[in-house]
Amino acid sequence: MIDSFTWVQAVARAGYFSRGVVYAIISFFAILASLGAASSKGSEGALATLLAQPFGIVLIGIMACGLAGFSAWRLIQAVMDADNHGHAPRALVVRLALLTSAATYATLAVTALTLAVSL
What we know:
By secondary structure, this protein is mostly helical. It has one domain. Helices cover 77% and strands 0% of the residues. The chain has helices spanning 6-34, 43-51, 56-80, 89-117. Helix 2 runs parallel beside helix 4 (89-117).
């Protein structure tokens, strides 16, 4: 059922890319913190740093859309069983974890939008 929806693949890919960018920024600051050059930042700190860059508001808007897309993909995986986990107890735990991931990334997307709008 999911294979026929190419828009779902585009949303998922944009989401994975946005997630990777957030983690790359966090990793960069973690490396700097370990060298003593900066303090470590979490997800919100990484987004705030991205916002301070030239065209930051545009970048944050794109990131928010990508993170919302990733959240939507996780929701599709959990609800529609896109990965064919099934309905066994262990599969339901995996699908619950996917649903939790969807909520987490939706929160991060809302945080990004809130940062962008607060300027």
